[in-house]
Design brief:
Blueprint: E1 8-15, H1 25-41, E2 45-51, E3 55-62, H2 68-86, E4 100-104, H3 109-117, H4 119-122, H5 128-138
Antiparallel strand pairs: 1-3, 1-4, 2-3
Helix pairs in contact: 1-2
């Protein structure tokens, strides 16, 4: 039987729903660690997870045994449930249903890690919406701006 060899890097990003309940600074490190465990449980390899109070970025490798949709569903479902156990503050927390996912070449993995590490600084100059639109345009992905963010 032939072995399937692959290493696919993906950059996943998603936003909180409705801007109602933001992720508190003091909970981020634990949340990112928890998400790393979820990613490992899907046979993927987390490389870098970071974000701001209203959105996250994940760089990981994608297992040949899981779809991007399933990986994202697992991360969002489990992390949302977990956040709700931390504090009543998160009782209405939810992630937006959509997400952005972009392929990352091996040659720019370090650049992507740096980009994800510097999210707080980056978003002093650019909104998440503008950032997402820039990614969509760079990757030549058709989109309808009316559907990028749930109301």
């Amino acid at each position: 039987m032939a072995q399937s060899l692959s290493k696919i890097y993906i950059h996943l990003t998603f936003h909180i729903k409705d801007n109602q309940v933001h992720i508190r600074q003091e909970d981020k490190k634990r949340l990112f660690a928890y998400m790393g465990t979820i990613i490992k449980d899907t046979e993927c390899l987390p490389i870098k997870i970071n974000g701001t109070s209203d959105h996250l970025h994940v760089l990981c490798t994608l297992s040949r045994n899981v779809t991007m949709a399933k990986l994202t569903e697992e991360i969002k479902r489990h992390s949302s449930r977990w956040l709700k156990t931390l504090s009543p503050y998160y009782s209405k927390f939810a992630w937006q249903t959509g997400y952005g996912v972009f392929s990352v070449s091996q040659s720019v993995v370090d650049k992507t890690i740096s980009y994800i590490e510097n999210q707080e600084f980056h978003h002093q100059r650019m909104s998440y919406k503008d950032e997402l639109i820039a990614f969509l345009e760079e990757y030549q992905i058709d989109y309808d701006e009316r559907y990028l963010f749930e109301k």
